[in-house]
Design goal:
There is one protein chain. By secondary structure, the chain is mainly beta. It has one domain: OB fold (Dihydrolipoamide Acetyltransferase, E2P). It contains three helices and eleven strands, in the order H-E-E-E-E-E-H-E-E-E-E-E-E-H. The strands form two sheets. Strands 8-1-2-11-10-9 form a six-stranded mixed sheet. The chain has a five-stranded mixed sheet with strand order 3-6-7-5-4. A hairpin with a 2-residue loop joins strand 4 and strand 5. The longest helix has 4 residues. The radius of gyration is 17 Å and the shape is globular.
């Protein structure tokens, strides 16, 4: 009877990070690694939010400034600036963030969809708002942030 009393709480495991004094998060399953900011080779005539590329253990990885992509004010890199390397639909991209705060488990009951009243371009990038005891955390919809279309199913 003990097993029946235990109700599995569905939760999401997320990596939380800061951008412009707000806490954002990405599903941990999408993250390959988190690295320190390094020298980025610029590529001419790319989108303003593409910083360039890096060589990550023999693989060329494009680097995107997440602040610019989300329309946030620019900031100078600091000692805590990191690159979060994500992989979605066979596409590997590095995202520059202000700092990584850690991994958290958030029960799905603590996640709400973004309000329909918040209707601007950035709201499309938000798939939910998570509530913890101390903060609200914006959950990013990474395929939308990166403009990656889901593969059509057959």
């Amino acid at each position: 009877m003990v097993a029946a009393a235990e109700v599995a709480v569905r939760e999401q495991q997320l990596v939380a990070f800061c951008l412009a004094n707000e806490i954002y998060s990405i599903d941990i399953a999408l993250i390959n690694e988190i690295i320190r900011l390094q020298e980025i080779t610029q590529i001419p005539r790319t989108s303003p939010d593409i910083e360039g590329v890096i060589n990550l253990r023999g693989k060329i990885v494009p680097i995107l400034d997440l602040r610019r992509r989300l329309g946030l004010p620019a900031a100078e890199p600091t000692a805590t600036t990191r690159i979060i390397v994500v992989e979605i639909a066979d596409c590997t991209v590095g995202l520059i963030v202000d700092s990584v705060t850690g991994v958290l488990r958030l029960p799905e009951s603590n996640i709400e969809p973004p309000s329909e009243l918040v209707s601007d371009l950035n709201a499309d990038y938000i798939r939910g708002v998570g509530k913890t005891e101390s903060a609200l955390i914006l959950l990013l919809d990474m395929p939308r942030v990166l403009h990656i279309q889901p593969k059509a199913s057959l």
